[in-house]
Amino acid sequence: MNMDFFEYKHLPEHLQEVSKPLGELAKQMDESLIAGDEKEAGMRKLLEAKDCFVRAKLEEK
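and the corresponding structure tokens:
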């Protein structure tokens, strides 16, 4: 998984509130788990969740 997808510093502050905790969790999982199919699936689902939560935050405006 390309960890660049979990970057958040380029986002406006109100979107960083949502993206940052998920980016930090992704980094923790990437560093603590051995590569494999299940890790890759989990990271992909975490990325999908982050994207959904960011879009949900955008809908609040």
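(Above: one complete record from the training split.) The mean pLDDT is 97.
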